[in-house]
Amino acid sequence: MHVEIDIATNDPQNRVFLTWRPVEALLRLVDAPAGSPDIDVTVSSTTRANGGRVVFADTLTHQGQPSLAITLPATGAPIAIFVGGEFQAPSSTYGDVAVEVREAASNQMLGSRPVMVRIRKNANNLSSMERDRFLAALASLNGLGNGPYRDFRDMHVAGAPDAEAHGGPGFLPWHRTYLLDFERELQVLDAEVSLPYWRFDQAAPNVFNRSFMGVPNSLGQVQFSAGHALLSWVAQGSAGIVRGRGVGPQTVPALFSETQTLALAGANGGFSGFRAMQGNPHGLAHTSHQGGWIGIPSTAPRDPIFFLLHCNVDRLWAKWQWIRGIHDPANPKAFTPSAGFPAGHRLADQLWPWCGPLQPPRPTTAPGGPLAASPMTGVPGGTPRIRDMIDYLGTMPGAAHHDFAYDDVPFQI
To answer: In this structure, which topology does domain 123-389 adopt according to CATH?
Structure first.
């Protein structure tokens, strides 16, 4: 007799990746002896040292508990529960936490399922293993300049593409989609990787060194340690990375702090006020490097620090959404109303390039194809709209999650 643990969805290797947002799990008693009574069990977890932790509930809630007592029918009928990562207790590797089902009376183990609480973390706090796995996946995606990374460079260039990504209210949802597509492509290469963020209102000595994002020399050529995965970096035919020397290990750029950014809309304001963060801190984070590719929109993605910078931009939006409780796309405060903005910046608009080539003045090319799929969720789909990118954690009734979360932004209904 044992218990099968089927947690929502899993990847081709039968692995389950969780975030703070709980997902449904089905528990089913298998091979119970004929005539057996229903069995009381306890669902809990076991965690390795410094591993992730998970919590349980019998409904979708942000108030999960470390264990849950349920009764499993001897007939094998499944019982649904919810399981999610315990906030601020993420994993560092797959299987460092496992869901367990034990018979309540005897404490006998009836079933176990390894999982990973996969969360976007502050890059300055990554372990060396997490850092190196991310760098290895990043280098593989670049593929000496010929890999899928090239598509992400080609999405973020001058002209009509620039008008899709910048200058209007679509800036934040467009870049959220961009990051999600990028992260999912990294996870094809290493499913345990998540996209880290550079918190640019704090010094980041563990980011701006030769072991991680490199240190530019007097000519702006970024230097790495021996054996570093990015020593083979090629961007648009140019070997290496060009970056100014404005940000170092102890540098705190002159831009809005997190507190100032989250206050941009005022006490009761909505997205129309908050989106001013496109200039400060976002724009100043780019130019704080004082030169190199990262300071110009058409070349910024050639430098991989771009994705850590924008991950923090998205985290700030996510934190603002959580603090204000604004996740419903129908809420006027969730996004700037459509009137007066061009196509690509209105709530119902499909986002380029994931929607394919468009008619002028929108871009007539579409590098990269549809948004990469995730085995953990079916949303936001291959051709998302702006409205699809707002409730990324699936907090609204019936909404699904996007399979990412930040280390300091909880799930809350």
So the answer is: di-copper center containing domain from catechol oxidase (1.10.1280)
pLDDT digits over 236-281, tens only? 898 999 999 999 999 999 999 999 999 999 999 999 999 999 999 9
pLDDT digits (tens, 9 = 90+) for 142-160: 999 999 999 999 999 999 9
Structure tokens, 386: 């702006």
- The tokens for 192 are 């345990």
Q: Which residues contact 373 (CB under 8 A, 6 or more apart)?
A: 184, 382
Give, as one character, the DSSP assignment of residue 86: P
Task: Find, among 385, 324, 330, 379, the residue nearest to 355 by Cα.
Answer: 385
29 neighbors 39 (Cβ within 8 angstroms): yes
Looking up tokens 């800036």 gives 171
Report the pLDDT averaged over residues 301-315. 99
Name the strand (E) or helix (H) holding 199: none
DSSP 8-state symbol, 400:
P
- SS3 track for 365-384: CCCCCCCCCECCECCCCCCC
In the block, which residue shows the tokens 């306890």?
A: 42
pLDDT in tens, 105-117: 999 999 999 999 9
For residues 310 and 318, is the Cβ–Cβ distance under 8 A? no
How far apart, in whole angstroms, are the C-alpha atoms of residue 129 and residue 32?
43
**Residues making up the chain, counted from first to last:** 413
For residues 197 and 120, what is the distance between their CA atoms, to the nearest angstrom?
A: 7
Structural domain spans, the chain: 2-117, 123-389
Q: What CATH architecture is 2-117?
A: Sandwich (2.60)
Distance CA 354, CA 37 (A): 53
